[in-house]
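Quick one from the shared queue. A colleague (R.T.) flagged Phage protein as missing a structural entry in our internal table.

Convert sequence to structure tokens.
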Amino acid sequence: MTKITQEDLQALIAKEEYARFGETCTVCALTLKSGYTVIGKSGCIDPKQFDENIGRKIAFDNAINELWALHGYHIKNTLLQGE
């Protein structure tokens, strides 16, 4: 495998959880099937403009970006060891 897709990353996720802190911060915790947890967060400046759905989407996207980097490293390292 030399290309990672969104579907590859989704397949690694066992559970997703969200928490809201204060009036503007949303955290997404993606627990992977391996048991490892990846975190993404979002926040806005003005509590009056806070939208829970937008906060969750941004936090999820940020967690996926973290997972993308970690999984990319894992794949690259696996390929390197196979050479």
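The helical segments are 6-12, 52-82.
Residues 6-82 form a domain with the Double Stranded RNA Binding Domain fold (CATH 3.30.160).
Added to the table.
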